[in-house]
Amino acid sequence: MRDLNKKPSFQSVFAPGKFESQLMNGDHTPTPMVDDEGKELIDPFCIKDQPQKITFQDITSAAFKIKSGIIKTPCVKSRLLNTGMDIYLKKDFVQVTGSFKERGARYALLQLADEQKRIGVISASLGNHALALCYHGQELQIPVTVVMPVVAPIMKIAACRQYGANVIVDGMDMGEAKRIALKQAKEKGLIYINGYDHPHIMAGQGTLGLEIIEQVPDIDAVVVPVGGGGLIAGVALAVKTLRPNCMIIGVESERCPSYHAAREAGKPTYTSIQSTLSDGLAVPMVGYNAFATADPLIDKMVVVKEEWIAIAILKLIENEKCIVEGAGATGLAAILAGQLDELKGKRVVLLLCGGNIDTTVLGRCLERGLAAEGRLLKFTVTVSDRPGGIAELCTTLASIGVSIKDIIHERAWIMSDIFSVDVKVVCETRDRQHAEQLKNLLHQNYHRVVFGSEDSFTLSPIANSNSEKK
After folding, report:
1. Where are the bilayer-spanning segments (predicted)?
2. What band does 283 get if pLDDT is binned at 50, 70 and 90?
3. In terms of Cα–Cα distance, which of 152, 130, 176 is closest to 19?
4. Host H or E run for residue 59
5. Is the whole-model pTM more than 0.90?
6. In the predicted model, what is the mean pLDDT of the chain?
7. Taking 50 as the threshold, does the pLDDT of residue 457 lie above it?
8. Are 183 and 215 a contacting pair, CB within 8 Å?
9. Which of 195, 358, 354 is nearest to 283 (CA)?
10. 188-215 burial, b for 16+ CB within 10 Å, e for fewer?
């Protein structure tokens, strides 16, 4: 790996471009970013044709240098039942800023030359990387500038400012924010630190793998959330070096399967993404350095549905008292979906890598998880419009312990019978068996009962069509 303290030239190198809106070249790589004068803007440490692989020595160096500023997070045995696996949870969401990103951010800052520490660094980020960089920049007294797009969560923007960073809120998406950040880096001599593909970032994230090996003996598999690839690159290298037979499994959402696409193409490739519960993984193209480092070490990639991520968030809160964001729950989602059944009877570590979930999103996740598990039901039933008709329905539900969450009735749109009323009910049951009991009771007592909607999610095992390393 070349000397990263040496200030690089910003001339004639391509970099990933404005992902969300920019036209793509024929090979599905982004067109070059340019400044206002048409000159190319680059990320000099993340070059398409010159990927940098990190080494195990880079990770051990990072572990030694960051240990005084990073929390050694617990890795505890899970209380989840009926998975058939011996599951351990690596709780890296308990870092000060709520995610594993602190490991790489601190190491990247510590590795700067003295002059560069005085000048400062810059990055573009939606949240976790920005928080980590700002916090450790304040701790190490290194000036930090972060460019956050206008869609970034307001609470994360405010938190970055509280850490004393220069926060620029500009750009409609991450691609535009990165272009602005690279332009500032070129003009002011700042080092741009990519949140997932900078070699020092990957080495720092790899320290998480070293801790796992130390905390859990004889592990059979580590399940890692995958976005830009920096985390799995560092963790896979650390774990495989010390435990060559341990499986490394990557998991990503079906709404942003950029690593799955890269594996199929044999190189990082642009992938269109959609809004997802695991927004921390929503990277349209994995890093060049991360892919070169990680791909030979990954045994299997899994793509999970959004509903399983919601269920995993719900299970972690109920059973483990862990509030995690969607990205941190993807590993458990793959297990619950039946996509990792080959790990039954084995010792498995799941990385709970982030806990910065927006409170409104958390509420939606819990409701969607309850609905997908069959514990939150929606149905419409036609009852008599005589006095006591709706009360009788409520009594019927109460008789088996069903809790009504919401109820409305409609008269004007019932054309077939003016003496009837449609009652729409959202209710909560204990489990799927209790829900079946409710359905049977309603069908016995009412002629017309309609449950759910046509586009509702059905909780059933997923056929495994994910890629494995040959």
Report:
1. none
2. confident
3. 176
4. helix 56-66
5. no
6. 86
7. no
8. no
9. 195
10. eebbbbbbbbbbbbbbbbbbbbbbbbeb
**Could you give the C-alpha distances from 92 to 66, 102, 399, in angstroms and in order?**
15, 10, 44
pLDDT for 428-452, tens place per residue?
999 888 999 999 999 998 988 988 7
CA–CA distance, 222 with 347 (Å, rounded to integer) = 9
How many residues in the chain?
A: 470
First-last CA distance in the chain: 28
DSSP state of 419: T
52 dihedral zone (left: phi>0; alpha: psi -120 to 50; beta): beta
Domains of the chain: 56-95+209-369 (3.40.50.1100), 375-451 (3.30.70.260)
* Residue whose C-alpha is closest to residue 250's, from 261, 85, 279, 58: 261
Residue 394 CA to residue 257 CA, distance in Å, equals 45
Q: Long-range CB contacts (< 8 A, 24+ apart) of 419-423?
A: 419/384, 419/385, 419/386, 420/382, 420/383, 420/384, 420/385, 421/382, 421/383, 421/384, 421/385, 421/389, 421/390, 422/380, 422/381, 422/382, 423/380, 423/381, 423/382, 423/383, 423/390, 423/393
Q: Are 231 and 100 in contact (CB under 8 A)?
A: yes
Query: Per-residue pLDDT tens for 115-152?
Result: 999 999 999 988 899 999 999 999 999 999 999 988 78
Strand partners, 99: 354
Residue at token pair 């350095």: 289
